[in-house]
Amino acid sequence: MLMGMGGRDERPSFSTAVDDRFIAEQLLPTAVRVFPPLERAGVASTWCGLYEMTPDRHPIVGPSPIAGLYLANGFSGHGFQHAPIVGKLLAELIVGGRAWTLDIDDLSLERFARGRLTSERHVV
Question: By the 8 A CB rule, do 120 and 4 touch?
Fold first, then answer.
């Protein structure tokens, strides 16, 4: 087991098998509690995918050690909502040599080698 940033125990896995027990015992009861009309709905299908995570649970945005290769990964399922600003920041970085709309230094790949992991301060 690994201890995650939020103090949660985590088991590394690359399994894409659907956990029907989790769906029946945890996911569906929670969904119905949040939105009661779901109780009348059925489950049409299930799927399971990998959830990419960096050690500090924050994305990597910026240049890689390979010249001309830029990284924008590790969004842990949030990439779609972050895509517009990340595209803008990468464009600024590639064209202008730095991102000026936002400071992205804390999202660099080098933060792991420097031991400067980014902590999440606004988790509910």
Answer: no
Q: Are 79 and 87 in contact (CB under 8 A)?
A: no
Stated pTM of the model: 0.63
CB-neighbour burial class of residue 41 (10 A; exposed 0-12, middle 13-18, buried 19+):
exposed
Arithmetic mean of pLDDT over the chain: 85
66-123 pLDDT, tens digit each: 999 999 998 877 888 899 999 999 999 999 999 999 999 999 999 998 887 777 666 5
3-class secondary structure per residue, 27-79: HHHHHHHHCHHHHHCCCCCCCCCCCCCCCCCCCEEEECCCCCCEEEECCCCCH
pLDDT tens-digit readout, 33-67: 999 999 999 899 998 887 777 888 889 999 999 99
**Residues 51, 74: Cα–Cα separation, whole Å:** 9
Alpha-carbon distance 4 to 10, whole Å? Answer: 6
SS3 content of the chain, % helix, strand, coil (to 5): 35, 10, 55
